[in-house]
Design goal:
Elements lengths: L2 E7 L3 H12 L3 E8 L6 H14 L7 E3 L14 H4 L23 H11 L4 E5 L4 H9 L7 E7 L14 H5 L1 H10 L4 E4 L1 H6 L2 E2 H10 L1 H8 L2 H11 L3 E2 L2 H10 L4 E10 L10 E3 L18 E8 L1 H12 L3
Parallel strand pairs: 1-2, 1-4, 2-3, 4-5, 5-6, 6-11
Antiparallel strand pairs: 7-8, 9-10, 9-11
Helix pairs in contact: 1-2, 1-12, 4-5, 5-7, 9-10
């Protein structure tokens, strides 16, 4: 069937593009989608995920609602200023109504069930706060052997977007991020803000998507407020596809160039909270030829063929 994939998400405009990218890719077996608090509240992220799957004709994909708050401290703020009060620029009602309800087992149990019943290792694309994934690894330790790798959109090598040092997904639950990225021995790919901002698309790209078909038209209809918020960041009319970049790597391993680095997450209560500390000093990175990568070493995405990546996403989303 192709790449077995589960998406853990907090939709979110960029999450919407990421979910559609996986749902529409014929070489992907999308086993499930789990939702977490983040950009907006858990009821909103769950409803958005169900509606996006209905838009893509994929109501067969189960959706499990997960954590509605971080592991330890309350979430300091949501991203409604960027994504709108409903997470989709106030336009979620433009999407089809869900044709099914969220899975009764909830996100963590659904994740465990999907992993344990899969006949080969599964990739998890974690594109929201990492609370569900941390809970999965803590409560179902046997799940590790069923995970091929976890591709995570999060972190910033040279600063953040929620604070001067912290990126939103990591900042929303640093303790969970540390559990997944540092404390657990699970292969991870981190797709940071530094690269996803470079992969931003412009208004011409969005116009091509809008003209390509019903799904593309619906997705671009969700973007006006998001584009407006990124105008000051990017310096042009366009948007960052953050989460879709990570899902592209989950679908096509190697579309992003990665390097292994030791990593730490700041879980203190000071101004550094949520910072992703990637040790890029020469000589400390491990080469895969040296053997298994130890816990605390993460493959960080540092570069890609920007035009090739944009073309890949546009092609996958441009169904008639």
């Amino acid at each position: 069937m192709g790449q077995k994939l589960i998406i853990d998400t907090d939709p979110g405009v960029d999450d919407a593009f990421a979910i559609a990218l996986a749902a529409l890719s014929e070489d992907v077996e999308l086993l499930g989608v789990t939702t977490v608090f983040g950009n907006v509240s858990l009821p909103d992220t769950t409803r958005n995920a169900l509606r996006l799957l209905a838009l893509c004709g994929r109501s067969d994909v189960p959706v499990g609602a997960g954590a509605d708050r971080p592991l330890v401290h309350p979430q300091r703020s949501r991203a409604t200023r960027i994504h709108g009060a409903d997470g989709l620029s106030g336009r979620s009602s433009m999407l089809p109504e869900p044709t099914r309800e969220a899975h009764r087992a909830g996100a963590v149990n659904l994740l465990a069930e999907l992993l344990e019943t899969a006949d080969e290792p599964v990739t998890i694309a974690a594109i929201g706060p990492l609370t569900n994934i941390a809970l999965l690894l803590a409560t179902h330790p046997g799940a590790r052997e069923h995970i091929d790798r976890i591709v995570i959109m999060g972190g910033g090598l040279n600063g953040g977007n929620s604070t001067p040092v912290a990126e939103f997904n990591i900042w929303s639950d640093p303790e969970a991020a540390r559990r997944v990225l540092v404390a657990e021995d699970v292969p991870c790919v981190l797709v940071p803000l530094d690269l996803t901002l470079r992969c931003a698309v412009d208004s011409a790209w969005l116009a091509k998507l809008a003209a390509a078909g019903a799904v593309g038209s619906a997705l671009t209809a969700l973007t006006p407020d998001y584009v407006a918020s990124y105008r000051k960041v990017l310096g042009f009319d366009g948007m960052a596809m953050h989460d879709a970049v990570a899902v592209a790597e989950a679908i096509r391993p190697g579309i992003l160039r990665t390097e292994p680095f030791p990593i730490e997450i700041d879980c203190t209560s000071g101004p550094g909270r949520g910072a992703t500390l990637v040790d890029r000093r020469p000589g400390l990175a491990r080469d895969e030829a040296e053997g298994p990568v130890p816990a605390g070493t993460v493959h960080v995405a540092v570069d890609t063929d920007l035009d090739g990546l944009r073309a890949f996403v546009l092609d996958r989303l441009s169904l008639p």
